[in-house]
Amino acid sequence: MKKSIAIGCDPNASELKEVLIRHLESLGHQVTDYGSDNPIYADTSLAVAQAVASKKQDRGILLCGTGIGVALAANKVAGAYAAVASDIYSVERSIKSNNVNILTFGAQVMGAELAKSLISVWMNSEYEVGGRSEAKIQRIYEIEKEFATPSPASIHV
User: Fold this and answer.
1) Per-residue confidence (pLDDT) for residue 40, from 0 to 100
2) Rounded CA gap, 24 and 118, in Å?
3) Per the residue annotation, which of 6, 53, 63, 64 is the catalytic one?
4) Domain containing residue 140
5) Of 16, 39, 95, 127, which is the most exposed, with the fewest CB atoms less than 10 Å away?
6) Is residue 156 situated within a structural domain?
């Protein structure tokens, strides 16, 4: 099934981002580029995470030097579930067991060919509703609701 993908990065990862956009398009996915000029990767992470969490985009991909910073930033958005990509098995399980909707990469620690392979696996994997991880992921959703930070508009002083 073809998907809409939000992608963004910091300036350190713009080359890898372009390679991954071409790869995703070659697989038939629609890609929206959320940019790579902002050195404050949290801003790009926020834009991608909001697009995915709101269901404007099916999935997201974020890149920085290690993939860690963009994952941390994206995970601050309710409904965004980001994981750092490193190996085939973890990437496959990230979505099949944990319903990860944003994959992050480190352009300074991963080559383009490995990143393309990981994306291909991830794009061909789906969350297994009712599977053995269902209770675990539902608990994560409960924690998210319990500890959600109220938006400034909802705080009344």
Assistant:
1) 94
2) 11
3) 64
4) 4-149
5) 39
6) no
